[in-house]
Amino acid sequence: MAKVAFVGLGVMGGPMAGHLVGAGHEVTVWNRSRSRAETWLAENPSGRVAATAREAAAGADVVLMCVGDDASVLDVLGGADGVLAGAASGSVVVDHTTVSAETARRAARACADAGVEFVDAPVSGGQAGAVNGTLTVMAGGDEGAFARVEPVVAAYSAKRRLLGPVGSGQLAKMVNQICIAGVVQGLAEGVAFALRTGQDVDAVFDTIGAGAAGSWQMANRYATMAADSFDFGFAVEHMRKDLANTLAEARSAGAALPMTALVDQWYAEVWESGGRRWDTSSLITRLPRSRPEQP
Q1: What are phi and psi of 95, to 5 degrees?
Q2: Is the CB of residue 95 less than 8 Å from the CB of residue 41?
Q3: Inter-residue contact 54 to 80 (CB < 8 Å)
Q4: d(CA 177, CA 99)
């Protein structure tokens, strides 16, 4: 069992930190909102809440982070009350935030200057994966550092893999988001078409879900799409942040992502229509769904 700090207790980080407690680790948490940390402590009374990220990191073998965006990662790491001000030399920082590959490299350099190892490790599986402890972790970093943290990360993941040097985890997460963007748009069009043509949506998707068209998105999102229910899941604002990083990386690499760029524009439309916090399946709201009146 390890002495672990967890920084960031949002919809993903809170359950992940809870699984660490359940696995028997000694867990200290910190969150910018103290009230959220206190709520987490009430659910995990054997844990501990720190006053600052520095205090949380002090004495920890592994410091795990899951915060909002690129700026938050660098801010939480640095400064007088940041993680690196308290982290012990030889410890490992694992960042589960989805950010740019360059931000991961910057964070790694800051850690190296402080004598701390770094692993970038974005996750896939959404809030349900965090709650159920079945996340997929895509990691970048040193093999030795990854080997040290893998038994800890195992508490909330079903699959985890080191894919190369620092930044590799973020690049793999970009591939993940590219694939999701296309699948969600295709599913939205399929559900909208089924509704528009008067089909039995449940019967159709129960049938085709067992075939080549089946996917996680279909199994978990076709019914909520048909019901116009989007007040849950991975928010449009987070997807747009991820796609912005992905498209910037593509421009740098000379990679062509025409479908991804188009879906990002459609997410912008959903955002502008009031769907900033809706689940990413809300792409369907752009499409006509009601069956037209018969003449």
Answers
A1: -105, 115
A2: no
A3: yes
A4: 12
Domain boundaries, the chain: 3-165, 171-286
- 86: closest CA among 51, 58, 117? 58
Please identify which of the residues 3, 159, 173, 241 carries the catalytic annotation. Answer: 173
Element housing 26 (H / E):
strand 26-30
pLDDT in tens, 229-269: 999 999 999 999 999 999 999 999 999 999 999 999 999 99
* pTM: predicted TM-score of the whole model, two decimal places: 0.94
Helices (H), 59-154: 70-77, 83-86, 101-113, 126-132, 143-153
Name the residue among 266, 177, 185 with its Cα closest to residue 225.
185
Q: Is 268:240 a contact under the CB 8 Å cutoff?
A: yes
Q: Which two tokens stand for residue 44?
A: 């995990």
Question: From CA 5, how far away is CA 50, in angstroms rounded?
Answer: 9
pLDDT tens-place string over residues 116-167: 999 999 999 999 999 999 999 999 999 999 999 999 999 999 999 999 999 9
We find that the CATH architecture of domain 3-165 is 3-Layer(aba) Sandwich (3.40)
Domain over 171-286 is classified CATH 3.40.1670.10: no
Task: Answer yes or no: 173 catalytic.
Answer: yes
